[in-house]
Request: fold
Amino acid sequence: MDGARHMTQQEWKQLNQQLLKTIGQNNFKTWIEPLKFRDLQDGIATFHVPTNFLGNYVSQNFADAILHELRTVDPSVCRLSFAVPTHTSTSRPQAPTATARVTKVAAPRPTLNTAPIDKRFTFDNFVVGKPNELAHAAARRVAEGGPVTFNPLFLYGGVGLGKTHLMHAIAWELQTSCPDLNVLYLSAEQFMYRFVQALRDRKMMDFKEIFRSVDVLMVDDVQFIAGKDSTQEEFFHTFNALVDQNKQIIISADRAPGEIKDLEDRVKSRLQCGLVVDLHPTDYELRLGILQSKVEMQQANYPGLKVENGVLEFLAHRISTNVRVLEGALTRLFAFASLVGREINMELTQDCLADVLRASERKITVEEIQRKVSDHFNIRLSDMIGPKRLRSYARPRQVAMYLCKKMTSRSLPEIGRRFGGRDHTTVMHGVRRIEELKVQDGQMAEDLELLRRSLEA
Ligand code: ADP
Ligand code: MG
Reply:
């Protein structure tokens, strides 16, 4: 054996599956997907990379993992080489190897032109509804470029509501309309890794230069740096330097700046000084809209596969607000239906998604109901639970008791206990009273329907 085995593109793709598992989806997407495998010869695996920075980063962080996988195909492989393709036909691979210290980022000054952007995450593919319309409008505004009007744009909201999607869409749009713009997207976690790496390798000057030379900086999931003091410190300086230069910054987090624990006050207040917008949990209409748009995408992969009426409505109703879960369910449904050669109807949906449907059965709590109802009728929670018998408190209290009976599995005595220790007969009376009013009083019926919907959302 001379070890000069030629690995195919196909084989590299297969190794990717294992790599993805080893280093996680985020890392994989950001760092491995942009690599273009060229060849594997004489123990050297060569990849094309969009930037030197990416090559250096991969070489420093993932060389071992990549080598490990490559060796399952060719045990003689001992080195990785990364090259930025040039316009001439021969591209000279750049030096970095798995073992050697990586040389300084090439070019007169370190640049970072191409942050890997996920091309599925565009504005075209983003479905707009009430819960996300503000965030969408703000993102659109920033994506137009031009003079910076609010800095930073701070997007926040729960998991799977489209923060990352919007950030990629902005990056994508900006890079398309102004290719010269230096747009950098990264997660707060990657920011920290790069920072730590720079400290370790005594490359802080390069680090600072890179981050201060971008035109648009996007940091996703910034809550990650809470409690990590020196990363916060560096982030704060980077942030200020860019704001001073009037460079656009876009940040996302899973909650509002003020609510991120262990984040220094000065960082919090910096984050709040631009435009803060939240993505609300999806509602039924938005979920249905998203499902309809994703069905069209799925049908491109599975032509001819039909979805029976009522299935999307059912899913929009039953699956939680997290769009990622919704998407996953749909993907599974299409794959399953095409495997078994059936059309997508209710029966198949129930079979195929039994676990998802069970997991997403929302357990609504008594506290949630009490909070929602007191908000709805504009009274204080303490008055709802407290002893006062005023009609303006008693009626909302009865509504809340009714909803607790209908929407939770709590018994009457349990419900009574949570309403300031009332007797179960009081609860029963309240529930009956609301049942009557629901029939007699249109306003009451409407209130109940609204409350039920918002609790189920
Ligand atoms: P987050 O970053 O808020 O956790 P993501 O942006 O990763 O959420 O979104 C999760 C998934 O749901 C992605 O595949 C994204 O494309 C999709 N998604 C979220 N919101 C929408 C929307 N309004 N329209 C279309 N797809 C969406
Ligand atoms: Mg995200």
Strands lie at 36-41, 44-48, 79-83, 153-157, 183-187, 216-220, 248-253, 275-279. The longest strand covers residues 36-41.
